[in-house]
Amino acid sequence: MAYGTQSGGYSTLAKTLHWLVAICVLSIVTIAFWMSNAPEGPLQNRLFMLHKSLGMLILILMVLRIANRLIAGAPAPDPTLEPWQRKASSAVHGLLYLLVLAMPVIGYVGHSAFGVSTPFFGLFEFPPIIGKNEPLSEKLFVLHRYLGWAVTAVVVLHIGAALQHYFIRRDRVLQRMLPG
């Protein structure tokens, strides 16, 4: 994901979408851990419903994020970054966009192939988008699980890099995405 040419930080909309996605991703990872370790029953079912709803919310937010990035662009890289850091940052951001967009799509298609609709916080349900195919759904859910671990790893790397910029390098990289 390449940097833009604008000076300054990210727009208020870009920041808002970033932090909404961040909160949702951190929440959904936590919920995924809880639901996979919860005993079968009402609690696990509620966690699954919340997980699915958050996944669809992430999908909607990511589509908005990508549209905003394409329309409004992004700021130029911080001038203190070395060329290798710019490349690493672009690679990590591109991977995050790809994974965080792919995860809900794979989950949605997996639920569709399983033969069920996907709830959205009890307000409505997204209908299945493909026909029932349980062997396919099993493969998609395995892929979804492995990509969940990949998302978690890349998010930890992203947070670690942001904190390194703030506390160790003491540059303005993190501040460009902070509210205000």
Gist?
This protein has helices at 12-37, 42-72, 83-114, 134-169, and strands spanning 118-120, 124-126. The chain is mainly alpha-helical and 180 residues long. The chain has a single domain, classed as Up-down Bundle (Fumarate Reductase Cytochrome B subunit), CATH 1.20.950.20.
Describe this structure in words.
- With 180 residues, the chain is mostly helical.
- The chain has a single domain, classed as Fumarate Reductase Cytochrome B subunit, CATH 1.20.950.
- 69% of the residues lie in helices and 3% in strands.
- It has four helices and two strands, in the order H-H-H-E-E-H.
- The protein has helices spanning 12-37, 42-72, 83-114, 134-169, and strands at 118-120, 124-126.
- It has a two-stranded antiparallel ribbon.
- Strand 1 (118-120) and strand 2 (124-126) form a beta hairpin.
- Helix 1 runs antiparallel to helix 2 (42-72) and helix 3 (83-114) runs antiparallel to helix 4 (134-169).
- The mean pLDDT is 95.
Characteristic key phrases:
180 residues; Fumarate Reductase Cytochrome B subunit; mainly alpha; 2 strands; single chain
